[in-house]
Every structure is written in structure tokens, then in C-alpha cells.
Amino acid sequence: MNKIAVYPGSFDPITNGHLDIILRTSNIFDKVIVAVLENPDKKSHLFTAEERVNLIKKVTSNIPNIEVESFEGLLVNYVKKKNSSVIIRGLRAISDFEYEFQMTLMNRNLNPDIETFFMMTKTDYSYLSSSVIKQVAHFGGGIKGLVPDAIIDDIYNKIKESN
Ligand code: PNS
Questions:
Q1: Taking residues 107-124, what's their average pLDDT?
Q2: Is 52 annotated as a binding residue?
């Protein structure tokens, strides 16, 4: 049976923590769909959904069983539409737990056939988040090693553009 996993998120932008989860998931499942949330409140994101998709594609092009696209609406509906029944989420610190717990139970309530699997982050990336990276980059701090090298310039340029 072809096992497809969906790894959803905002990915604004993708970090090395996300990439690590993608790589590890791609070793377990036949196909991993990285699903970028198309948020109606566009102001809340640095990059558009299309730009976020393209950044992820840029840094995952060497992984054969990855697909990247954006989605709108309920995640469980999207997962079903993609013929999957598995949601992947990364877990960092205990502080992630409450949010993830709530989301998982709500998704299960919406569709009990869909399971959420949690991947523990690599210790090196346990403090990373897209928000912290944007903040550091905004004030000119170094982000090498925190996001894939190939997108460092994209982040600084986008921040400059949006100022
Ligand atoms: O990277 P994030 O921002 O923590 O990802 C959150 C995401 C995209 C997984 C979540 O916001 C989501 O699934 N949104 C779609 C709407 C939905 O299905 N909501 C019900 C579950 S609470």
C-alpha cells in the first residue's frame, strides 16, 4: 500500500528544523506532501503562500518522494483529498504540547480516520521557529545554520522589501 503523509504548516519561512522533519519523514513514508497553509489574513505572513511553496521546493528538490503545495480550509479535508490518513507534526519543547494536543483532538473529532504522528525535533533545532528567525534577520543577525543556505538571501531580501 502506498503510504502518504501530509506535513502541514505555515513555513514562513521553512527552517532547518522543518527540513529535518521532512527528511526523516521521507525515509518512512512512500510520499510526503508538505502542505503550506494559505492564510486568508495575508498580512500575518512575510512570504505569500506561493513564495513559501517555492522556498520549500528549492530546498527539497533532491528528495524524490516530496511534493509541495498550498492548501486552504480544513486540514483534514485536504488530507482526505490527497488519499492520505496521516498528519505529521514536529514537536520541540513542552510549550508546543498544548497547541498540538488541541489541534490533534480537534482534527480527530472532525475525522477519526486521520491519525497525527509526532516527530521529536533534533536537539540542535529545538529552539528554532520561523518567527525567531524572522526577528533575528529583521535586525540584521546571522541566520546561517538555522535555515537552509539556499534561502538565506531570499529572507533578507524579502525583509528589506517589506520594510
Ligand atoms: O506551522 P503552524 O502554523 O503551527 O501550522 C498550523 C496548521 C497549518 C497545521 C493549522 O493552522 C491548520 O491545520 N490550519 C488549517 C485549518 C484547520 O484545519 N483547523 C482545524 C484544526 S485546529
A1: 96
A2: no
Among residues 32, 11, 54, 53, which one has the least CA distance to residue 117? 32
Q: What is the CATH number of the domain that holds 144?
A: 3.40.50.620
Owning domain of residue 60: 4-162
Rounded to two decimals, the pTM is 0.97
Give the C-alpha distances (Å, rounded to integers) separating 140 from 69, 87, 128, 153.
Answer: 30, 35, 17, 12
Percent of the chain's residues with pLDDT above 90: 91
Per the structure, the count of domains in the chain is: 1
Pocket test for ligand 1, best of 7, 10, 106, 117 (most atoms within 8 A of CB): 10
Q: Is 61 a catalytic residue?
A: no
Write the pLDDT tens digit of every residue in 44-93. Answer: 899 999 999 999 999 999 999 999 999 999 999 999 999 999 999 999 98
Residues in the chain: 163
